């Protein structure tokens, strides 16, 4: 049995499937894909994932993409490899449904909105530093039309209306999570699940540093306490230490710049 | 064991979880929610689903919402109730991952775009026929901010740019599905799964009638042949016959008007 995990910096989607691999104690080969060099659009990589996106799981030659799908796959393929406290996907149908409710909410109503602000601040700078002819060539190398559009928009700048809408979506999510954590210890119930890993990777880990104006500590104290509980898990702490080649001046997700 | 299914007309999300109930041969109480009377926003219904949306599954008092979550729940809770040909969710991890890849694509890149055209043509007419003060009251009764926004936009009209983007997304999906059906008999492989039910409910069933200008029969002949195979399944045929109170003149989804 051989697992390979192709990923970028330990944030967002790349973090989201790395944490379960480590929580489950699965041995895997880590393959860093350098997004700063656009390796994800290069032929060697699109031969592995035609959509040209990280992360990718290769399990004995079978390719699985999209982090929510990868994480469910790891549960199906390795049901007994679990952290000591509880399985990452609850074994009872209702618990699994609660987990999937949150995964769907995060995938559809959180991920893209935090991402838009990150792209606006970081990828926009990168995109505007590419010479015009080179930028057209870059766009041509991107397989997914939506990603081509996102790069083009990053260069010209996201509209104020789109950024304001993204901010409203993030604030809605903060309030929703804060309310849930008043009722249950973790997002989907009494145990830590893939839903916690999802929200942490796409929002919880960086929201306070990225959006100081939201006053997250005041607005969502339970979320902050939950975030610290997630970050203290050895698997998460280890994942966060993995390779990060982003220039420190551009690390908007990690909150070092705005 | 008692199952109740709260649903509207047999199209889109209401159809999507009704078909698995019937494919699995599960006895359930059907509860029609009249969207034309905005029953989904009324207190008796938001007491059941605070998000004010159909469909809803009630299993012995446990409420499950969101069709992809409901359909996975039915697989977890009733793993042995399956159609004769194959389980709706493949039992091998790779097959389940293929199914989830397609479910995710349909949920995130198809559903809302067909829906936007349907809302533009049908809900727009309904919304514009509501007197101004009554419309504000209607908006106030809608729990989810995104749904409030969708209703307000339906009344004022979706922008040409948004509609054109939605059309492009649907055309991309048609080509992607057509390509897949050149490789496998069903969307996720050799067997009919929840992914087929998902695409059929949100797009496949009505795309040719809703968008004659796309020339679906010419552009996607395999998709048409697949659509007819899905429609011929007794469970699907039975679901399609369930209650439909939409005024015939407004049945844009069923293609009777444009």
From TrEMBL, chains A, B:
Q: Name one GO molecular function term.
A: transferase activity
InterPro entries reported for this sequence: Glutathione-S-Trfase_C-like (IPR010987), Glutathione-S-Trfase_C_sf (IPR036282), Glutathione_S-Trfase (IPR040079), Glutathione_S-Trfase_N (IPR004045), GST_C (IPR004046), Thioredoxin-like_sf (IPR036249)
Tell me which residues make up the GST C-terminal domain. 92-250
Protein source organism: Novosphingobium aromaticivorans (strain ATCC 700278 / DSM 12444 / CCUG 56034 / CIP 105152 / NBRC 16084 / F199)
**What name does the UniProt record give this protein?**
Glutathione S-transferase-like protein
Signal sequence coordinates = none
Q: Which superkingdom is the protein from?
A: Bacteria
Q: What are the protein's UniProt keywords?
A: Transferase
Tell me the ranges covered by the GST N-terminal domain, including all copies: 1-82
UniProt keyword Membrane, yes or no:
no
- SUPFAM superfamilies for the chain: GST C-terminal domain-like, Thioredoxin-like
């Amino acid at each position: 049995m051989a697992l390979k995990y192709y990923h970028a910096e330990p944030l967002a989607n790349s973090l989201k499937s790395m944490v379960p691999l480590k929580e489950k104690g699965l041995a895997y080969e880590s393959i860093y894909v350098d997004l700063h060099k656009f390796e994800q659009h290069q032929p060697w990589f699109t031969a592995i994932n035609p959509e040209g996106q990280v992360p990718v799981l290769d399990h004995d030659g079978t390719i699985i993409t999209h982090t929510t799908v990868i994480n469910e796959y790891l549960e199906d393929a390795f049901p007994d490899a679990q952290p000591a406290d509880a399985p990452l996907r609850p074994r009872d149908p209702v618990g699994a449904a609660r987990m999937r409710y949150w995964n769907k909410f995060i995938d559809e109503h959180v991920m893209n909105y935090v991402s838009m602000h990150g792209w606006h601040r970081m990828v926009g700078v990168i995109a505007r530093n590419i010479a015009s002819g080179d930028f057209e060539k870059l766009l041509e190398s991107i397989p997914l039309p939506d990603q081509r559009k996102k790069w083009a928009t990053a260069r010209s700048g996201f509209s104020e209306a789109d950024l304001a809408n993204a901010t409203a979506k993030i604030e809605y999510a903060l309030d929703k999570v804060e309310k849930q954590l008043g009722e249950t210890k973790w997002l989907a119930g009494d145990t830590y699940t893939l839903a916690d890993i999802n929200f942490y990777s796409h929002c919880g880990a960086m929201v306070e540093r990225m959006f100081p104006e939201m006053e997250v500590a005041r607005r969502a104290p339970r979320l902050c306490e939950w975030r610290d509980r997630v970050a203290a898990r050895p698997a998460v702490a280890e994942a966060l230490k993995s390779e990060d080649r982003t220039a420190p001046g551009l690390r908007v997700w990690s909150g070092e710049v705005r």
